[in-house]
Queue: 4 jobs
Job 1
Amino acid sequence: MLHAHQLAKSFADAPLFAGVDLSVASGEVVAVLGESGMGKSTLLNALAGLEPLEGGRVVVGSTDVTALDEAACARWRRTQLGFVFQAFHVLPHLNVAQNVALPLLLANRLDPPRVNEVLAQVGLQGLGERMPRTLSGGQLQRVAIARALVHTPPLVLADEPTGNLDPTTGAAIIDLLLGQARAHGAAVVLVTHSVAAARRADRTLRLTPTGLVPEPVAAGG
Ligand SMILES: Nc1ncnc2c1ncn2[C@@H]1O[C@H](COP(=O)(O)OP(=O)(O)OP(=O)(O)O)[C@@H](O)[C@H]1O
Ligand SMILES: [Mg+2]
């Protein structure tokens, strides 16, 4: 589903990473670990076509994302991608339900029952009318997750989606991401600092300056 080949990125001539290869199958959840500042968010943005690369190619399904111009890439993202931003990017002037409904609105298929269903899945049932400023950090994070999943995209890129959640809520969110993979065949890339979350993934990789390397994560716990 997702094939990234030899991705390389620098900022102001300072190399961040190079030699990044990543393949994720439909129905597979891959966790990416790495120290703060290693470039995990930059990598996810690059996979989404939101960040230019110095080198490499990103192919999703039959689409060469790196070859799309900005408008075509935006159209591709609308239908094919669910992205959970590390900083949420919930729109402050829309209520919770409107934020979650955005991908459906952009696809011309508004579906209020579906919005309520995903809100319930992230534990925000009944909060659809609330404005984002009245929510906690963990609730905002779950709005961002609901918005990324509402249109059941074939590719889900999630940047620290449990970073602001208590362990129980975090585990429920990981269940939901696994469910997207298992039930809907989504390819899921999960950036996380949580070993508990990484353990639940099918594979775990670590981002290093010279590429993604397999990371053994002890089972159990
Ligand atoms: N637009 C930019 N211009 C210059 N440097 C940037 C830019 N965006 C990110 N960086 C730098 O690139 C490095 C990687 O940032 P990134 O956000 O990808 O790290 P990360 O692995 O996601 O870290 P964290 O775990 O803290 O979220 C950092 O040193 C950051 O300062
Ligand atoms: Mg980050």
Job 2
Amino acid sequence: MELILESPRLLLRQFTLADADSLLQLNSNPAVMQYLHEAPLHTIADAEKVLTDIIFPQYKNKLGRWAVILKENNQFLGWCGLKYLAENDEVDLGYRLLQEHWGHGYATEGALHCVEYGFKKLSLPFIIGRAHVDNKASIKVLEKVGMKFVREGVEDECPVKIYRIQA
Ligand SMILES: CC(C)(COP(=O)(O)OP(=O)(O)OC[C@H]1O[C@@H](n2cnc3c(N)ncnc32)[C@H](O)[C@@H]1OP(=O)(O)O)[C@@H](O)C(=O)NCCC(=O)NCCS
């Protein structure tokens, strides 16, 4: 398992198959999935398939969605990271945390360090972020990491706000 980055309270590392149960907990909570155009997971096998088919292939070129671990007790909080979107040739900042860990600034802390990693270590020219227009917590995190609103759009049939930060 590869450590990607460290922030004051968090470690961000690559997922492994041993995280399937944690991912199942995350993606089976309707509150977590509320604004996401994504089917909830129901079984460990579903979660293993997401890891194998979606998450692991993102780990090319040091990118991807990374497991967020709380340093003080090694607890899994969720994920945060930078995903390459081939359709627009751009890199997207994303985050998703277990509901019991919302509201402690963890998403902002992880996201800030992902942006810094993207610019300093990967020399990305810019990073984008997208959130459902009603996903206020997510939009707040994008704004707190310094992203600027670009436009509204429709993605996967959902109305989204698109943000961007320049290196
Ligand atoms: C988005 C998410 C990761 C945020 O996690 P978090 O740990 O609560 O984020 P933070 O604590 O770093 O910051 C959240 C900010 O949004 C604010 N916020 C939360 N809910 C809000 C609401 N309903 N209206 C307005 N602001 C809200 C918080 O007050 C905080 O801002 P502040 O620090 O200025 O007070 C979490 O809500 C989540 O996992 N949601 C489900 C998955 C998801 O939607 N991911 C984003 C997809 S685009």
Job 3
Amino acid sequence: MKTLVTGGAGFIGTHLVERLLNDGNEVIVVDNFTLGKKENVDKFKNNKNYKFYMININNNEEFCEKLKNEKIDIVYHLAANSDIQKGGKNPEVDFRDTFMTTRGVLELMKKNNIKNLFFSSTSAIYGDEHDKLLTEDLGGLLPISYYGGAKFASENFISSYSYMNDFNTMIFRFPNVIGPNLTHGVIYDFSKKLLNNPNELEILGDGTQTKPYLYVLDLIDCIMLMSKEIKKGVNIYNVGVQTATSVTRIADIVCEELGYKNVVYKYTGGNIGWKGDVPKFQYDLTKIHSKGWKAKYNSDDAVRETVKSLKK
Ligand SMILES: NC(=O)c1ccc[n+]([C@@H]2O[C@H](COP(=O)([O-])OP(=O)(O)OC[C@H]3O[C@@H](n4cnc5c(N)ncnc54)[C@H](O)[C@@H]3O)[C@@H](O)[C@H]2O)c1
């Protein structure tokens, strides 16, 4: 199969590209290195099935023009702004890199007659539903971050393009995804802060924010399994783990694994890390589990494995 991975130089993208190549697929990566890194994809450059284009996907004309001769079977659309706090300071960031990249992909698919799409959505589209169990068919969603809003708008545009152009689409709503080669997120931030000051750790909020953390290789297994199932219309799945880890617990695991002792935690206070942060959520995973996939790592183990990989 000939595949296109947008955002393929990023954290999740790199793992996906590796698996797709190992399984014998042709892979085209498009990225502009906003957050992804050239070093992440350099290791693929001698593979005859791999091709890279440095394109800003917001620039729809350049994107469509440069890829016009590529006969693509499926697009894995991962390009987005994944730095939610950066987006929180400037809504333009998520409009441009989270929403307009999706529009760019949909136009490319329409022009090049590409029929299959996999989209990386997020729990942020649900907004803050407090203790409500999040099912895929929950209605009246009100995202609270610009990032969540841009992803939800992307889902809606995907739905209409899929209907109008007979696309077969799968949307995965990821929770927090972690693992080797992280580019962002709480574990990444804690390790950086502790390198600068091994005695004290600033923790955003009161540390009780508690979310499910999914190990990236579990996610890649799920994407590969479900790619075979892409059907006409829009098929939405929550993907995650049933357990969750608090921010203070993450700090404990980071300190334990990296060997920092007697670290003083300084909480910034309040029950959220930043405005737009959803402090707690829980997915209903019945739909994805019924397909025969379950994460191998629970949330705490995923955190621990990730810290170990950082240490290496
Ligand atoms: N990691 C998570 O916890 C998580 C959770 C939910 C959803 N997601 C989604 O999964 C996808 C991958 O996330 P990730 O963690 O690998 O993030 P990442 O930042 O490591 O990867 C995103 C990639 O997109 C690229 N990109 C951004 N804007 C672009 C543009 N205009 N043109 C071309 N390339 C562009 C970046 O350079 C980066 O390589 C994203 O869509 C993200 O929103 C991630």
Job 4
Amino acid sequence: MRIFPFHSTRGCLSYLVTDAEGRAAALVDPSVELPLETYLTEVEKHASMLAYLIETHTHADHVSSAPELAARTGAKIVRHALAPATHKDIAVVGGETLLLGAETLRILSASGHTDESIALLADGAVFTGDALLIGGTGRTDFQRGNSGALYHTLHETLGELADETIVYPAHDYRGRVASTIEAERRTNPRFALDRDAFIATMDAHHPPEPELFEKSIAANSK
Ligand SMILES: [Fe+2]
């Protein structure tokens, strides 16, 4: 598996993932804030075809370019079955798999930040969306978020992965790209909270609405 990150504005991260031979690629969380050509050039460099456009959840802070990329390339848009968007070429739930060339992407249910969040497990790497960020987690106070569900995702799903699993989040506001499950379990302050404290902390956490909130939700729910 090969992984190439893209940084866009306001700390949003997207990723190109290909199998080792470059037979097929997936783009995870592509954003309109990067030109389509930026993604397409990297795909062309590293893989024979773009198979999937995968949304880890319905983003509230940027507009997805998955529909435009699908129209250009014929790649299939993959979203959780509960995602509000009607454009789902492949609707998935936790436990399912996608074949990427000779390799497999496993879908993990990662609800909590939203009720339709997924993570993707691929050959020692996990794309965590906004469920697990480096040193933090996504908020749970809109988009049918649920603090108890996020606790379960952190401890029963992501926290159970092998220590050395590399974590690729959907955001980082300090220019970082990757961490590991072991480092997050050890240093992420939200991991250190017990269930009751985690729920109380998250339920009381109401950061300002993201820039582009309404525009993003409207566009990404089509
Ligand atoms: Fe999010």
